[in-house]
Specification:
It catalyses: Transfers a segment of a (1->4)-alpha-D-glucan chain to a primary hydroxy group in a similar glucan chain. By secondary structure, the protein is α+β, with helices and mostly antiparallel strands. The chain is built from 14 helices and 37 strands. The radius of gyration is 33 Å and the shape is elongated. About 10% of the residues have low confidence.
Length: 813
């Protein structure tokens, strides 16, 4: 064994005496743990007291995982404990000043703002915190060992015989027990740079995920590389922060973090921690309570209901170069967009990301949709929810696999020519104590005023959009999904709840803005900043607002006074159209304006027409069961509605299950009832949706001028007695399509329709076709336009308008 130098009368905390080190063998280096899958967090066994422990010795042992003979008791990760306002009064150890004892107490108690100024190597003075250790040596580059003396509450110290640029710590936790050799966490420089801190302070760090969170890294030194993980978290009002995890048995005494100036960021590099390790931040809040918090910037999390964060590094190699190149030349509002809205957990229950990459991609490709839109995939605690109560904004839910496996799903969709949108939730977040709520003992992410900081209907908290760091957290999160996961657009949830202070509040429950209005000016500024930043960095993505009010300028450019979104869900069209088809056909003539009113404002914004998840839950019934009548009539009405939707100005979005005329409301447990496809009405509806997409994508008349009046003109929008609609769609390339819809069960033979050109017009689509489950009532495949003026057009033709059906015709080329 190497000779060991110990000078108990000359420690780092007393007047030193010269000591010559004896020759020693080279100290062994510690191997890094192999990468492993994250395990469930489990309470550690209680640590047994060492035989030599004194009143000054810490009550828990901290040692590298796997090799330590004892574990410290783990604290529950969702409860708060009260911290003392000051360290307990202790007898000053011989040779230590009262000031130094106070410093050491603050370090051990976890509320020192800069433990690096006390621990680590300072000149020749070395202090290390190893609670529960019975023997601690410093191992120098020349293999010399210097024994450290226990000075106070688990702090060991010595004055080294000469200055050194590197060292290792050799520790035993039991007399005669195994020796652990490890690097010192308090030797490394900060892993967050000055520029990062400046940008965080300014609220302008557009790649915040690269600065905060947990990042594996390597520190160089004379004794070789030290691999570990740099942890950083924003908690400006915290009195202290520790990092805890499976690497220290969930006891953070030995890993207090340092505060980096006025930035509010706490940081620590922990040697030996690598991918797959679990961790949390133990935060001593401004209110004096300790809370175990998941990392707000965690890029991977444990499987719920466990709540720890997971260290991770992406190794995915993208293969969607062609898609990303093609996207650069696209304009979403001038391109075809037929969106299939998917809840990953219930599309086909039991599939993981990789299985979805096979089965979902194949299905969406076959159905002809241009995009999928995933309901929120960011981490959320409840399995049976849509996912709108987000607790981990930077981590895909682990229910279906790892972040890289989610990247694989996106990659596979792109290679198949399918775009990917995500539902994104910046409007509110849940109150779970282990997540964002009162993160540092104050209202940090949420607004401190409950009138602006709490949502009365949803029981959630509302972000403080006036705080620069909070806006930065959200803007960077949007960029993270777009850039790190190659997402093609974000559907921003609940925009109306953000921009109105009185949203879902009674009189007296809200406070007007600075100018006496009801608009949330801070949220509006945030949305403008969000869209400006996203489009500057990713100009060809789609930012889509779910906004349900008449707020003007949602899709107008920011420099024109708008919010800067690219598209907006047309909630008015959805509501009015569904209310119309719910009526008995004989009564629809009294509500004809419901089905035509959307064209009054169709060009005030750039619209998406949604038949979304919101309309198939909470007693609203499925799309198939909304219309009255028998099964045939309900199926026919749904086919007519879908045909109307696909030919109406605006992009289309259909929630899964709607394409097979699902009868029941959505169920997380049951998923989409694919067994219905054995019945003709359901299989026929699915074939119709496929035919709609197949007709839609190659015909620019249906999408290239969605946002311009030149793309649509009524032939007859006022036939309320007959429950019919007829109109023309036009494309940038001069193409034209004639569409007619009959929302009556009465067929209309010899029905004359005006046309802009003479000659032969061929049938593109007939929703009453028997292959879709229709009646096939006198369905011509082509008509001849005659020079007879009708509907304001110079030509016209007689067609058969089927019962509860729609037909499309185009001029023969």
């Amino acid at each position: 064994m190497s000779p060991r130098t110990t000078n108990k009368s000359a420690t780092a905390d007393e007047q030193p005496a010269a000591a010559e080190p004896a020759a020693a063998k080279k100290a062994p280096t510690r191997k890094q743990p192999a990468r492993k899958k994250p395990a469930e967090q489990k309470p550690a066994a209680k640590a047994s007291a060492a035989k030599t422990a004194t009143a000054e010795t810490a009550t828990a042992k901290t040692a590298p995982k796997k090799t330590a003979p004892k574990k410290a008791a783990a604290k529950k990760t969702t409860t708060a404990t009260t911290a003392k306002a000051a360290p307990r009064r202790t007898r000053t150890p011989a040779g230590l000043s009262a000031g130094l004892v106070a410093e050491l107490d603050r370090v051990v108690d976890g509320w020192h703002h800069d433990p690096h100024s006390v621990l680590g190597l300072h000149g020749r003075d070395l202090r290390v915190l190893r609670p529960g250790a019975v023997e601690v040596d410093a191992v120098l580059p020349d293999s010399t060992r210097v024994g450290l003396t226990h000075r106070h509450r688990g702090v060991f110290a010595a004055r080294l015989p000469q200055k050194t640029e590197d060292y290792r710590i050799a520790v035993r936790y039991e007399e005669g027990g195994p020796e652990l050799i490890e690097a010192d966490a308090y030797r490394a420089a900060p892993t967050v740079g000055e520029l990062d801190l400046h940008l965080i302070g300014e609220g302008r760090h557009e790649e915040l995920w690269r600065a905060l969170g947990a990042h594996t890294t390597t520190v160089e030194g004379p004794m070789g590389e030290v691999s570990g993980t740099g942890f950083a978290v924003w908690a400006p009002d915290a009195r202290g922060v520790r990092v805890i995890g499976d690497f220290n048995y969930w006891n953070g005494i030995a890993h207090p973090m340092r505060s980096l100036g006025s930035s509010g960021v706490w940081e620590l590099f922990v040697p030996g921690v690598g991918d797959g390790d679990l961790y949390k931040f133990q935060v001593l809040g401004a209110d004096g309570h300790w809370r175990d918090k998941a990392d707000p910037m965690a890029r991977r999390t444990q499987m719920p209901p466990a709540t720890a964060s997971v260290v991770t590094t992406s190794e995915h190699v993208w293969s969607d170069e062609q898609w990303m190149t093609d996207r650069k030349g696209s304009e979403p509002h001038r391109a075809p967009m037929s969106v299939y809205e998917v809840h990953l957990g219930s599309w086909r229950p039991g599939l993981d990301y990789r299985e979805l990459a096979d089965q979902l991609v194949e299905y969406v490709s076959d159905m002809g949709f241009t995009h999928v839109e995933f309901l929120p995939v960011a981490g959320h605690p409840f399995d049976g929810s849509w996912g709108y109560q987000v607790t981990s904004y930077y981590a895909p839910t682990p229910r279906f696999g790892s972040p890289d496996e989610f990247r694989h799903l996106v990659d596979s969709l792109h290679r198949a020519g399918i775009g990917v949108f995500l539902d994104w939730v910046p409007a509110h977040f849940p109150k779970d104590e282990w997540a964002l709520a009162r993160f540092d003992g104050t209202a940090l992410y949420e607004h401190p005023d409950p009138r602006r900081g709490e949502h009365p209907d949803w029981g959630t908290l509302i972000f403080n959009y006036g705080r620069t760091e909070v806006r930065n957290f959200l803007v960077a999160n949007a960029l993270y999904w777009l850039e790190e996961f190659h997402i093609d657009g974000l559907r921003v949830d609940a925009v109306a709840s953000m921009i109105y202070l009185d949203y879902s509040r009674d009189s007296g429950q809200w406070e007007p803005n600075l100018f006496g209005g009801r608009e949330n000016l801070e949220a509006i500024d945030f949305l403008k900043e969000l869209n400006t930043t996203v489009y500057r960095r990713n100009p060809n993505v789609a930012m889509i607002a779910e906004e349900s009010t008449a707020y003007t300028g949602v899709t107008s450019p920011v420099d024109h006074g708008g919010l800067g979104f690219g598209l907006k869900w047309n909630m008015g069209w959805m509501h009015d159209s569904l209310e119309y088809v719910k009526k008995e056909p004989v009564h629809r003539k009294y509500h004809h304006n419901d089905i035509t009113f959307s064209m009054v404002y169709a060009y005030s914004e750039n619209y998406v027409l949604p038949l979304s998840h919101d309309e198939v839950v909470h007693g609203k019934q499925s799309l198939f069961n909304k219309p009255p009548g028998d099964e045939w009539q309900r199926a026919a009405t749904l086919r007519a509605l879908l045909s109307f939707m696909w030919s109406h100005p605006g992009k289309q979005l259909l929630f899964m299950g709607g394409e097979i005329a699902q009868g029941d409301e959505w169920s997380h447990e049951a998923g989409v009832p694919w067994w219905l496809l054995q019945f003709e009405h359901h299989a026929g509806t699915q074939r119709l949706v496929k035919a709609l997409n197949d007709a839609y994508r190659p015909r620019s008349a249906l999408w290239s001028l969605d946002t311009e009046p030149a793309g649509f003109s009524w032939l007859d929008g006022g036939d309320h007695e007959g429950n019919t609609l007829s109109y023309l769609r036009r494309g940038e390339d001069g193409s034209v399509l004639a569409c007619a819809v009959n929302f009556s069960p009465v067929p209309r033979p010899n029905w004359r329709v005006g046309l802009p050109a003479e000659g032969r017009w061929t049938s593109v689509l007939n929703s009453d076709d028997p292959r879709f489950g229709g009646s096939g009532y006198e369905a011509p495949t082509a008509v001849e336009a005659q020079p007879q003026e009708w509907h304001g057009q110079p030509f016209s033709a007689e067609i058969t308008l089927p019962p509860l059906g729609a037909v499309w015709f185009e001029p023969e080329r």
